[in-house]
Amino acid sequence: MARFGPFCGVDWYPFNGENWYTLSYHLHRLAAAEQQKQNERKKAAENPWLITCERYACELELTKEMAHALIERIEIDRDSHVFITLRFRDEYGALLRLLKEDGEAVLE
Length: 108
What we know:
By secondary structure, this protein is mostly helical. The chain is 53% helix and 10% strand.
């Protein structure tokens, strides 16, 4: 039998039919996972929340324009409790999940 690769001429060859299929399967899954990770990183770079935050990174005060860009709704109930609904809630959460998966420090 002709043998190719680093095990040429060795009597024991680890990649017989079943092992080769298993290795091929896992390499395919690994490549798919890497592609998914790259796609998620690309999405993170195009994240509208990050883009908006970068636009206002040097601001020292909340401006009307910044409030319109970052805040979706402000509600005040009859007991004067203020509820602020931010835009980009899902985008921020997606970034936190991505950072946690990569094992990077995340403050919540």
